Amino acid sequence: MDLKQLFGERIKSFDDFLRSYISRIDSPFLKEGIEYALFGDCKRFRPLLVFASYELFASDTSINSIKKTFPFAAAVEMVHTYSLIHDDLPSMDNADMRRGKPSVHKKFGEGIAVLLGDGLLTEAFRAFSIDDIWDGVSRTKRLVLSGILASAIGFEGMVEGQAMDILYGKIKSPVEKIAEKKTAMLISASCEGGGYISGGKRGKNLMRRFGLLLGRAFQIIDDIKDHLSGEKRKDEPSFVEVFGMERAKEIALELLKKGEEMVSGFRNRDSIMNLIKFLRDEGI
Q1: What is the third-level CATH fold of 3-217?
Q2: pLDDT tens for each residue of 132-183
Q3: Predicted TM-score (pTM) of this structure
Q4: SS3 string of the chain?
Q5: What are the structural domain ranges in the chain?
Q6: What is the predicted pLDDT for the residue at 93?
């Protein structure tokens, strides 16, 4: 399944918003790197989850209505991109390629890559304070949204998951816990934020649980793909190594099925169902 073909209008509109947003940044030394990191061969999976989760609870699912989620989706994408830049560094995964081109530290050097990641993380949270980019989303709601994102990526979320990943060769933390912290919590925040904007507390709570299921499945599928491609690094946590290939596939399918059941009663479920199908088709 090609996400750009399926969600082309949304991705283009979101990318236009993201380009407009970063055009505000007056940093001639880093501007090229910001654009390089944020654009390329990007699926925009997490922003699409924001839009689809919003859609579930919204009475209006037009692109103009969905645009009110763009600032939150942009914050999510900037955080995700920062995490990729830092994850690719020589001190972490030491990856040469990202999004179909040389990774940021290969293009601009390690020091600039660290600063670009730091800047994107900071910029993601500055976005919540800029009134003119939010279409009818109150400051009170924005405060909750910033808390959703921060809780997912800090010392009790993605940062801890990355640390558990780095130290896996020494401490052998459960792969389920690493997957939840490193991957699932940001995916869950994407769903939770989108659901909250349109569905309030109900949307927030339901989509947080849904997102954790989807995020765990996402990490298992990623492990399966790495195993099949031979890209798994030494001492890296892997569901395939712990459970075996067939059981890893079974667990991922079980998680996706539970996610489908959670949203099956919604009228505006097509987008979220297509994103579940995308994951299922990716590597299982």
Answers
A1: Farnesyl Diphosphate Synthase (1.10.600)
A2: 999 989 999 999 999 999 999 999 999 999 999 999 989 999 999 999 999 9
A3: 0.97
A4: CCHHHHCHHHHHHHHHHHHHHHCCCCCCCCHHHHHHHHCCCCCCHHHHHHHHHHHHHCCCCCHHHHHHHHHHHHHHHHHHHHHHHHHCCCCCCCCCEECCEECHHHHHCHHHHHHHHHHHHHHHHHHHHCHHHCCCCCHHHHHHHHHHHHHHHCCCCHHHHHHHHHCHHHHCCCHHHHHHHHHHHHHHHHHHHHHHHHHHHHHHHHHHHHHHHHHHHHHHHHHHHHHHHCCCCCCCCCHHHHHCHHHHHHHHHHHHHHHHHHHCCCCCCHHHHHHHHHHHHHHC
A5: 3-217
A6: 87
